[in-house]
Specification:
By secondary structure, the protein is an alpha/beta fold. It has 14 helices and 8 strands. It has a domain of about 210 residues: Spore Coat Polysaccharide Biosynthesis Protein SpsA, Chain A. The chain starts with a helix and ends in a 15-residue tail after the last helix.
């Protein structure tokens, strides 16, 4: 049994270290080998586009969003706007209808989803009414840069590019230690995605801003989200999902830990399936770098919840084996105690906050797994008010 404990200890440790340190470092090294491979753009590529906004009870921000999308710098005869209201029960639909009446010279439509089934379902239903060549998806609380659609379309320079993700820029990074920690994490993730897309394909996008060809749109199960489902789907079809970080959307991060924790729980609502959504991903001979990218950037991260448990548990069973296991166990306890210290003292220390934020992320994964196993995972949720 001792050998088994050691094997599980080292595997768990490897997954954690590889996900958080090894993979990002290895990707930077690999990126240098492909330094001549750059993102190509063709600004003359201006096909017909529908900008779709999904909203559920967004009366606080929907008017600002509507004004924002009308200011996009794109030929007026080639752009349409579609707001898919996911069974909104507040003044969202009323505000949209009034806005449409005031702007009859623009192509703006409201699609009302009758039964609330979440963002993905609202996109699935509304997409069936789209006749333009391309779809740009954005959130109700995200403010798009005026050149964002031009940038997204410019990145579709070949038929094998099926998906382009923009860059989410956090505008309230300095508001609280929580929003600062999220912004720091997101900046690192963006750097990783940029290299992945330059070499071959990204493994996930972001819901604030992305685009695909209308003909390539796929009706996903409503429990899934496009962020994590679209790039792997296209990769397995032999197509590419890339990132153009000159296409920008601005958004607030959660300013209180409750909002950010809830958001991460929602992100993990199908975490077990995301560990390896399709066994074909393992075929490195066919999918090349995507196999490597997915294992490092997705699989290892989706296994952090169980890896931390196993590392601590099997470390405890090996305590008497050597000073090494005593030191690693002590280090783990100290790590978790620092997170608890941050909770008790509410310190603004940068390093304590990052440790605390990381632990909150792991707990959110555990809650996600619990919701899956108990049937509580759902395709819709209450929004984080501090992000509005």
């Amino acid at each position: 049994m001792e050998i088994l404990y050691k094997i599980l200890f080292y595997i768990s440790g490897f997954i954690i270290v590889w996900a958080m340190v090894g993979y990002p470092v290895s990707l930077k090294i690999i990126g240098k080998l492909y330094k001549n491979r750059r993102l190509k753009k063709d600004y003359s590529h201006q096909p017909t586009v529908t900008v779709m906004v999904v909203a559920h009870n967004e009366e606080k921000v929907i008017l600002e969003k509507l004004n924002n999308i009308l200011k996009l710098n794109y030929p007026k005869d080639k752009i349409e706007f579609l707001i898919s209201s996911d069974n909104s029960t507040d003044r969202t639909n009323e505000i949209i209808r009034h806005f449409i009446k005031e702007h009859r010279d623009r192509k703006i439509r409201l699609y009302e989803v009758k039964a609330r089934k979440g963002k993905t379902n609202a996109q699935n239903e509304a997409q069936k009414t789209v006749t333009t060549e391309y779809l740009v998806m954005t959130d109700a609380n995200s403010i798009m840069d005026k050149e964002s659609v031009n940038e997204l379309m410019a990145a579709f320079t070949s038929e094998d590019i099926a998906y382009v993700s923009g860059r989410l820029s956090i505008i309230n990074q300095e508001f609280s230690d929580v929003s600062n920690a999220e912004a720091s994490y997101w900046d690192g993730d963006l750097a990783t995605r940029q290299i992945e897309g330059r070499i071959q394909t990204i493994t996930a996008g972001n819901g604030a801003l992305y685009a695909c060809r209308t003909k390539d749109y796929y009706d996903f199960d409503p429990i899934q989200c496009h962020d994590s489902a679209m790039p792997p789907l296209y990769a397995l079809q032999g197509k590419r999902a890339i990132a153009n970080h000159d296409a920008i959307a601005y958004e607030k991060a959660g300013e209180v830990i409750e909002d950010e924790f809830g958001r991460k729980v929602r992100m993990n609502r199908i975490i077990l399936k995301h560990i390896l959504p399709d066994v074909r991903i393992l075929n490195m001979f066919k999918y090349k770098w995507f196999t490597y990218f997915y294992f490092g950037h997705r699989t290892c991260r989706y296994l952090l919840w169980v890896s931390h448990l196993f590392l601590l548990m099997f470390n405890a069973l090996l305590l008497t084996e050597s000073w090494f296991f005593l030191m690693t166990f002590t280090g783990q306890l100290l790590f978790y105690l620092l997170a608890i210290l941050r909770v008790i003292t509410k310190s603004n220390n940068k390093y304590l906050t990052l440790i605390y934020y990381y632990c909150v992320t792991i707990i959110a994964q555990w809650v996600g797994v619990y919701n899956i196993l108990t049937g509580k995972a759902k395709p819709f949720w209450e929004k984080a008010e501090s992000t509005r």
